[in-house]
Amino acid sequence: MSSIPLMEQYQKVKKRYPEEIVFFRLGDFYEMFYDDAKTASKILEITLTSRYKGDKSVPMAGIPYHSATPYIRKLLKAGYKIAVCEQLEEADNASGKLVERDVIRVITPGTLVEDSLLETQDNNFLAALNITKNKTGLSWVDVSTGVFKVAEGTLQEILTELNRLNPSEYLVPENSVSEFPKIIDRSKTSLSGSLTSFPGWAFDHDSAYKSLTNHFGTAGLGGFGCEDYTAGIGAAGAIIEYLHRTQAEPSSVESSLATSGLKHITRLEPFIRTNHLMIDRSTQSSLELVRTMRGEENNSLLAIMNKTTTGMGARLLKEWILRPLRNIEPINQRLSVVEWFLLSPQKRRIIQKELKNINDIERIVGRLGTGKANPRDMVGLKTTLLSLPAVKKQLAAETENPPLLRNIIEGLDPLPELTDFINKAIVDDPPLAITEGRIIKTGFDAELDKIRSTSREGKQWIARFQSDEIKRTGISSLKVGFNNIFGYYIEITNPHKDKIPADYIRKQTLKNAERYITPQLKDYETQVLHADERANKMEYELFKAIRDKVSKYITALQKVASAIAELDVLLSFAQIAQENNYCKPTLTDETGIKIIEGRHPVIEKVAQVKFIPNDTLLDNEKNRILLITGPNMAGKSTYIRQVALIALMAQMGSFVPAREAEIGIVDRIFTRVGASDELAKGASTFMVEMNETSHILNNATKQSLIILDEVGRGTSTFDGVSIAWAITEYIHDHLGSRTLFATHYHELTELALLLPAVKNYHVEVKEWKTKNGEEIVFLHKIAAGGTDKSYGIQVARLAGLPKSVVERARLILTNLEAQTLNEKDQPRFAPIDAKKITPTDPFQLALFQSKPSPVIKMIKELDLDNLTPLEALAKLQELKDKLKD
Known about the structure:
27 strands, 885 residues, alpha/beta, 18% strand, 6-stranded mixed beta sheet, 29 helices, single chain, 7-stranded mixed beta sheet
């Protein structure tokens, strides 16, 4: 096979890209060969054929080059990368030689810029993880928008952030796979994106620093605020190196898959963790912030809060939900703008209407930076910029605007010189393709206008020529036609052969006619035929020049996009506040949380019954840990989640679902909710539960908010109660975190008598006796005090368990309670005067020590020195009798 030049050319390409599926351009198709073809035929469900015959046969599968997008999507979803090998010259220009081909781009999950391959409301992150001895670095970029960030911290902090990002693709140094196998394996199971090993030198600080400064054209990184980063710079530099390897260098190749340059990645922004309320992946899932626990977007917090109009706003809203603020001043600035819009509803509606004319210029800029912007993108920019003056007019207030709103207004620069340039250059309704003409407006380029005029006049000349020849020859059926082989011709049917002028040159004989040309027709044909082709080529070159000029506005356009996105999100906050009767929260530096008539923002919208609001008081004295008891279905889980969501929304800068809310700033929200196996990692439900609880106890601070739901239920009752009891004591004595603990273990209510900052609450239940037993109704109201019943059997009856099962359960419960509860219905195993423990005490907990045996007591009291043999025998009999009792 090496003797076939085409296959030799393919093998050279494939050798450079052994892991990728190579799209090898042959005419109108991307062909795949050998194992690539076999793999693609299965995944894409296309026919596997072969090229050449006999022992030279090569497996082959192909897809049309002009409709490759759906096939690319399938391959990426299956975990493959694609190397696009294009023809670098037209076949007509190859002069009999093999057409030159080379890879113009490697398509990977983290490097997409095509709208057709991206979700409008989601960022598409490429991340890099760099683990070093002292620090761990993380960097991430969205190539479609130009967002580029870097962070440093402990391994645990960075892994938490990586999990929160959940990138489409993430890079690690090749040596990390062998040096940190457990970490890499854990990332593979916790992240849905693809892992890419990349050469370790790219993560080296000096190499990475050089890659970054070369890209930005700067002497250093101090201007970005990350000069002192070490591991983080390694990660960021590796990303830039990877992007330069996967994106094409600028070239003359025109392909729908080609990219060239990274002009829109204009800055590296340090991510400072202490500026944000941190939310780990488990909490994100438990609170159903952007997806429900079933993986659905509907009925998540994001779905309820998203009233944005633009894709830019939707992506920013998601970022704000996952990264609320921690500093009061910027939070209050957002709240002030939301309040301003609430007080100006008419302005808000007009602005939102104007925003419907706004295109996703953040992603248009991404395509500008990678050389993929098309004519419609240019018109999209113009339409957006022309809408901004009307928006700014509505934002002009009679009174002084809030500071953040003034910044937004300043960012909404309509860039009139750019708008005017695009308006003069591009037609109002251009095609998507940039090689087929009809893009450039008349009057923009004199030479193009002249060529177009030649084309128009040439076609008119042809019509006149036909009319003149009919008159000259007297042949009324004479017509001038055209085909791709002979060009323009004069066709005369056979009955008129005797009328053929002497200057006609026969070109083709048909069954009933002859075709002729004349020197005059041939001369003009050259002008007419090539005028359209020349015009299209000129428009292509002109458009590329226009695109390059517009690219000089990338930084300015990114500022406009940022202002639009922020405006859009704050408008959305105002709309949901008005629609749902939210209140403006008060943020403080204290550690208390006070919520009056709080509601769950999602449940109140989707519940089929009226939502019952509830109050919450958390402070450092008597209400730091709230133990909420009550049966299933009563609303415990909803209540504790709504407190976390209200705090989170407040720190986003949003109004909140309550009549009144005062939130002491929270640094982290931790949740331990739900039950799930992770069998692939060898972790049972209970192990997952304990892992998550351990994470909380090892990372929470006094400023944290902890949400615990039924901790300990994954094991036996006594084990579960013991663990839940000890966890509560630890949080109380050593962490001091604000905590809401919903539990079925009503035995834990005794902790309120032992620990001064623990307060019991319960969900009210209306209960009465009937001939069928006890009936209950859940009131969904939180009240002070604990409950002494779990109502599990009543709930089981409501669920439809057979009557005999319910009655048997009641009997068993009565017997168990008789053995484990004292006459005051308090647990015998946890007496009020039980000794509390600290981490340095022995493992055996004092509160679970058994009561002393009377037999042992008698033995200890024996006076052996003065005991006669007969008395000893009598005592022995007495002890034996005691044991029988």
